[in-house]
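1st attempt posting a full record on here, be nice pls
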Amino acid sequence: MSQDTTNFDLVFVTNVEHLHTLSLGLESLLRLYAFKAVHIVTSRKYFKFFAHLQTICGPTPLHLLDEDTVLPGMALANLREKNLPCFPKRAGWYFQQFLKLGMSKLESISDNYVVVDADTIFLKKLPFSDSEGKYVFTISDEFHQPYFENYALLMNEKANREFSFISQYMVFNKAIVNSIVTKIEMNFNYSKDWYWLIIENIEGDGASLFSEYETYGHYVKSHYPERSSYLKAPWLRLESNSFLSYFPTRRAIASLPEEYYYVSYEQRANTISGKITKRLCKTVIPYLLRLRHQILG
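the predicted structure (as tokens):
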């Protein structure tokens, strides 16, 4: 299997509360792979906290992108005004999905780019493409019906679901992403940009009605079967309200069972302690991490 990623860019879409985990995730990815460049998409007000990650990147270029400039006409503030289930709280969850897809419109991004969720740390090397040039998708058994109902609504076709593409990371091809979003715009007579069309046309009363990974993966599976292959790789999801879910230690990561290829530290803020920790990670902790870097260099 091919492991050459020197022509692939690495992308994170994040906010400041994931700073610590993202730092460890970036460190592990650059130890395992050689990327063309690293892009971190976040709010401009957080740039000062992420700038020191160039130290981790070494010779690999690091680019910080203002999240409100990636999608013309859409910013998090005006997305929050929409009347969808669990909005405005859930607006950021949709926004980060659109940003991952919207990166395909940037001229500076590589033809193939790897998006890794900011709470995910790779433990072992996985192939992103094989020796035949096919994209390697990590698949799972997850299933959430609204994703497929809205896939059919947006794409005007049904997804032939056999497995899930939700895997905490995705290898995107710019041309394929652009064909997906163009198809959405065409299906709605080019009345608006694709991201607004998704927001204004998805149906359901749940908190999660659209998945960028399921949409992309099933589109590739249907339209480009000759360019895709599939892999079941064991990975670990750790969900917690605890402080450790925001600040995993290197020792804790090293002690994880060797069978896993990566771990996702999914943060929950549904208890008082979880909410306090989340608040600290958005306010006090970033300044402490920045100060530590300034002192230690």
